[in-house]
Every structure is written in structure tokens, then in C-alpha cells.
Amino acid sequence: MRILNIKYIIAVILAAFFLSACVTDSTGKEKKPNIIFIMADDMGKEWVSAYGSEDVVTSNIDRLAQSGMRLDNVYAMPQCTPTRVTLLTGQYPFRHGWINHWDVPRWGGGAHFDKELNPSLGRVMKEAGYKTLTVGKWQINDYRVQPGAMTEHGFDDYCMWTGFETGNPPSAERYYDPYIHTKEGSRTYRGAYGPDLFTDYVINFLRENREEPMFIYYPMVLVHNPPNIPPGKAPDEKNKNAVYASMVEYADSMTGRIMDELEELGLRENTLLIFTADNGSPPKVNARLNGIRIKGGKGKTTENGVNMPFILSYPSALDGGTQSDALIDFSDLLPTFAELAGARLPRGNTYDGRSFAPLILGREDDSPRDWILAMGGQNKAKRTEAGVENMYNFRDRVIRNKRFKLYINTSRQPEKLIDLQHDPLEQTNLIDSVHIKEVRESLKFLKSVLSSLPEKDNDPRYKPLPPQPWDVEITEKSQEWKK
């Protein structure tokens, strides 16, 4: 009798556990979670008060953390393009080839994010039955050449800053009087402020599609240069930190608007909402984080350049106010969202990411990873007769576990080992301290990861687009392409 009672208790607990991780509709059918992924542009942890920023108060992002989980070990790449293509494909830059920043509307050269040769997060979610939306910044297709690129990549609707299109001055504007591309084409929106316009688009999409599962990818234009003072803000224009802080506060308010709308529509419980950033802050700004002044690390593989703020909330499955040291990087986003959506990853591709869906669902307290990776820096790619190629055959990178971080140079040689637990500012190189057991064992492990990586990085994969007039102009006028 006692055994039966124990079995019964276990069964009840497991049933309650399962039901806590899903939401059902009026017919009792399990509903897929809505997923909203918000990614700020150029914003390190030192500008998020939930992580201990002392120079700004991000009250809405903090509210998100209070309702969910703050993660401390999430790696992006140190530049815009590599991060974005990594999260879209579930692949590291050495595999998808976009190792350097390459602004397609500005530099062209026939390069583009090719739907035929690359997996796409948007397509995966759409094929899983989701209504899909993206708003904000893309920059890996030129809408003058590929006006339907966003549809081809799997998005039912979109509202995108075009990126700066060479030869088209109005397209430089992403903030006031922004130049925006939708299904109706590209034009300037006079009197509008870009972040307001993008957030309005998200809110309208939520209202119109509330009865269906939704996937929303919101790569913000905030808080990237050029510095601007958002509506309702009045910082000292000569103080770079103050202007930047006002932009952070506005990004925070846009996040808050989306959270409020989800609550108003009754969607908050079954929505996974994530706030993160694509790389560290600009080097010209700095903020105090937990008593230490941190300079922006954009373009660097130091922690302030690649270890991103990452806060997620999914009230139906995850308790609020939690914190995790789970190892995650941006290659993990595609497989994670696919698992939550009940989707299959497209065949014929190799994926580097690993799903951390069980962590989001509260079924595990860690990710399946024992290492994460970031790579690259400030160099752009180069244009050759073969197309857009990377600057190095093997780009420098960092690999870390929860405690130690290994720097590898472009000659594929380990050159620095950091104990992040005791040296968070990364000032002491321990690579020769193999007499210390923990150092020796971690160095051996991280080197084994290095040996498993391809010896040569791929270049971007695409079928070249036809030559455009602005390609010729860049080639003739810019000495950078002649180096």
C-alpha cells in the first residue's frame, strides 16, 4: 500500500510539473508559446540595472528579470553581422562564413544572406505554424535588389530600417524621419521616430494575431550610433554617456510597452519574452557596473564585448526572480526556438547550437553545454575577384567554460587563459600556470575543443547578385578595398 501511495504521489507531481510548462486553449489543446526576441544594438551589461548598472535605471528590463530569469554567461559575437547570422542559422561564423561585419546595402559586392544556401530562423518558425514578424535592423540584404527578402526568409510581415544604402542619403536615417522598408516598399516616414514606429508595428501585430502562435524578432536600432536624444529626453548633449543613457532608457521603455500590451491582451502567461543585445557597447561610452567603471567592449572578445545581457521570462513555466550561470551562445537560439515550437530543423545543414528549451521550461537548471565560443573583431571582410571574403583563414576567437576562458590567435595558437571567477577584468594570463590543477585541466579541455574546430573558416555562402552601380562607386572611391 505504501508503494502504491508513493507511485501515486510521484505521478501527481509529474503531472503538475508537465501542466505547469504548457498552456491550453478552451478545448484543452496545448497552445504553442508565443516567442518575442528583442535585441538591442550595441549595449553591454554595464547599461542594465538588473545586472548592477549604477548609471542608468532600466526599470522595464528589470521588471522582465523579476518575472523570469537573468542569465550571466551568454555569448554573442563582438560585431553586428556575425551575431545576427549566427542566431538566424544556428551556426558559428566559421561555418556560415559571416565572420566580419559586412553592411550589404552599403558595400554590396553581390553579397547577401542567401535563402537557398542558409537556414533561416524565420522560415523554421513559419513552417511550424507561427505567424512571423520582424521589425528593426537587418542589413544583410539590400531591399533595392531584393525587395521581397524578408518574405523569402520566412516573415509574414516586416517593418525594417533599410540600412544605409550607398547613393541614397535618406536611407541613413533610422531615428528621426526614418527610411523604412515594408511590403509597400521603402520610403521616409516624416515626423516619425524609428523606435516608436517599430514598436507600434509589434503592438499592432500582437492585436491582429492574438489567436495564433506568434514569433516576433525585434532587432532594435537603439542604441547604436549616431547619438540622438529620444523624444521626451533632455540630457546634456555634450555628455556622451548621458546621451547614450537616454537612448538606453528609451529602449527600455519600448520593451515595457510590449510587456504592457501582452498583459492587456492576456498573452503574457504563454509568451516567452527575451531581451538581449548583439554585442558590447561602443568604446566611447562607459558605465559603472557593481562599483567598477566598464568601458564599452564592442569589437573585442573580452567579456564586455561578447558576454551579453540576456533576460528571459515565460510565466507559465518559469519562476520569476531567478538567476543562472548556464553556458549559452547565440548559435543555440535556432534549435531552442525550434524545440519550443515543435519544429524540425531543415535537413542538409550542420548546426552548432544546442537547445536550452528545458532550462526555459523549468525542467533543467542548466544548459547542455560545457563550453561556448565567440570570434572576430573590428576588421571588415575584403572584396576580391571571388567575391566577399574574410580577412583571415582562421579568425581569432575565445572559448570558455564556466570558470576559464582561452584566447586563440589567428595562427590557431592558444595565447591567453583567464580565470573569470577570480579575475573578471581579465588582467592575469595563466596559460603557463599548468602547475595549478584547475588551470591544467581546463586548459587541456579547452584545447581539445579548439582541436575539434575546422582548420579553415568558411567565407560567406551566397550566389552573387548582379553588379549594381553603387558597387562600382565603392570600388573606385574607397582605398580600403585595395589593401
Q: Secondary structure elements and their pairing?
A:
Elements: H1 2-19, E1 23-24, E2 30-31, E3 34-40, H2 59-66, E4 69-75, H3 80-89, H4 93-96, H5 104-107, H6 121-127, E5 131-137, H7 149-152, E6 157-161, E7 179-182, E8 185-188, H8 194-208, E9 214-219, H9 240-264, E10 271-277, E11 286-289, E12 292-295, H10 303-306, E13 310-313, E14 322-329, H11 333-341, H12 357-360, E15 372-375, E16 382-384, E17 387-389, E18 397-400, E19 404-408, E20 414-419, H13 437-451, H14 469-477
Parallel strand pairs: 3-9, 3-10, 4-14, 5-6, 5-9
Antiparallel strand pairs: 1-2, 4-13, 6-7, 7-8, 10-13, 11-12, 15-18, 16-17, 18-19, 19-20
Helix pairs in contact: 2-9, 8-9
Keywords:
483 residues, alpha/beta, globular, disordered C terminus
Short synopsis of the structure:
With 483 residues, the chain is α/β, with parallel strands linked by helices. The chain has helices at residues 2-19, 59-66, 80-89, 93-96, 104-107, 121-127, 149-152, 194-208, 240-264, 303-306, 333-341, 357-360, 437-451, 469-477; strands at residues 23-24, 30-31, 34-40, 69-75, 131-137, 157-161, 179-182, 185-188, 214-219, 271-277, 286-289, 292-295, 310-313, 322-329, 372-375, 382-384, 387-389, 397-400, 404-408, 414-419.
Overall mean confidence score, pLDDT: 92
Proportion of residues in extended strands: 15-25%
Strands, count? 20
Q: Rounded to an integer, what's the Rg over CA atoms?
A: 22 Å
Low-confidence stretches: 1-21, 476-483
What's the tally of helices?
A: 14
Assign the structural class, choosing from mainly alpha, mainly beta, alpha/beta, alpha+beta, or little secondary structure: alpha/beta
* Alpha carbon gap, first and last residue: 81 Å
- Major beta sheet, specifics? 10 strands, mixed
Strand order of the largest sheet: 8-7-6-5-9-3-10-13-4-14
Overall 3D form: globular
Tell me roughly what share of residues is in helical segments.
25-40%
